[in-house]
Design brief:
The chain has helices at residues 2-27, 293-297, 326-349; strands at residues 40-42, 48-52, 57-61, 67-72, 79-81, 87-95, 100-109, 113-121, 131-132, 138-143, 147-153, 159-166, 172-173, 182-187, 192-197, 200-205, 209-215, 229-234, 240-244, 249-253, 259-264, 269-277, 280-287, 302-309, 315-322. By secondary structure, it is α+β, with helices and mostly antiparallel strands. Helix 1 packs antiparallel against helix 3 (326-349). The radius of gyration is 24 Å and the shape is globular.
């Protein structure tokens, strides 16, 4: 009787400690981010870089198949790989004391160099964006309650309005063009800027001419929200690719404005970013906003995947990012199952 009581006491105490340890580990995980990252780019030699807004990290997947972190504590959404061989990104921080968001800029080269170019500030110099052309001009989005426009900053610091003025939706050149709400942007190999303007895709030449390419819903798919489009990419042949998060698919808009679906994510996942390299499409997936996403937010299980769509519809999963508490959670689950099994055996033996 005493042995049975001692075993039950040990079992209860151990189970309580397991639950307490799991709760502490989960509490130490960073808070889940409401807006996933769309930044994914491919360097000329094939190295893939992608942003992890869930854990505030930047990842590098090498051509020999290794996944490495090149930055921590950097909340980044957009990435751009410049002609100068640097990876560029923005970083976002929240100043709780002043109750405002801050933004900064950084650049990296492989995993050997990470440099903060502009510390997080509430007043980012106009035009200092992530996208930059071969001449060193940078492009950024600038908007408030009165206007939305694209800004250009020359290497000598001269700033000009590339396109946009008051809010609206009008194709045109310079100040005659109108935007509603600008977010994701990329510079294609054709030297064209592509931006997500609320629920539409706009193409902007480097002389400021704006043309609407496609909108939401793309491909006649119903959407539960109007801003379901995220990452953008262009292949230099007139095709534009967009991650349609709401429909959990990647769309391709050809030069004739025809839209087709080239990727459909499985039920737990959704594409947030897309890149093109050597006529192959790279897809960045995050967990879809379903009840299963809570596990990713708690650091349990996979929460990011990267795929490559090659020729002849060949699909290759390049890498998967797992939460930091996955092993601990699995170990605790196995331990609790073992305790439950022992309890069942002893109950049968009595």
């Amino acid at each position: 009787m005493q042995a049975k009581t001692s075993f039950n006491f040990f079992r209860v105490r151990l189970a309580r400690h397991c639950w307490l340890l799991l709760a502490v580990l989960l509490a130490l995980q960073p808070a889940a981010q409401a807006h996933p990252a769309w930044g994914i780019v491919v360097a000329p030699e094939g190295t893939v870089y992608f942003a992890d807004a869930e854990r505030n990290r930047i990842w590098m997947f090498t051509i020999d198949g290794y996944l490495r972190r090149i930055a921590d504590k950097r909340h980044t959404h957009a990435l751009f790989y410049g002609a100068d061989g640097y990876l560029y990104g923005e970083m976002v921080e929240y100043d709780a004391k002043a109750q405002r968001w801050l933004s900064g800029r950084w650049r990296a080269q492989s995993d050997d160099l990470f440099e903060v170019m502009l510390p997080a500030t509430a007043n980012v110099p106009s035009g200092w964006g992530v996208c930059r052309d071969a001449q060193g001009n940078t492009y950024d989005l600038e908007q408030n309650d009165q206007m939305a426009r694209l800004m250009k900053r020359a290497p000598d610091g001269k700033v000009s309005v590339l396109a946009g003025a008051a809010h609206g939706h009008t194709d045109g050149t310079g100040a005659a063009a109108r935007f509603r709400f600008l977010e994701a942007m990329t510079l294609g190999p054709d030297n064209m800027l592509y931006v997500r303007d609320n629920a539409t895709i706009r193409r902007v030449t480097l002389t400021g001419e704006v043309l609407t390419l496609g909108g939401n819903p793309l491909g006649n798919e119903p959407h539960p929200m109007t801003d379901g489009l995220l990452g953008l990419a262009a292949d230099g042949r007139g095709n534009v690719y967009v991650a349609d998060m709401a429909a959990r698919s990647v769309r391709r808009i050809n030069p004739n404005q025809q839209v087709e679906t080239i990727w459909q994510s499985s039920w737990m996942w959704t594409p947030t970013g897309v890149a093109v390299h050597n006529n192959e499409v790279y897809v960045l997936e995050n967990l879809a906003p379903t009840s299963w996403a809570i596990f990713g937010a708690l650091g349990i299980g996979p929460y990011i995947r990267v795929y490559r769509l090659g020729a002849n519809d060949a699909v290759v999963k390049l890498t998967t990012v797992w939460g930091g508490t996955t092993r601990t959670a699995v170990g605790l689950l196995v331990l609790m199952l073992a305790l439950w099994s022992l309890w069942r055996l002893r109950k049968k033996a009595v």
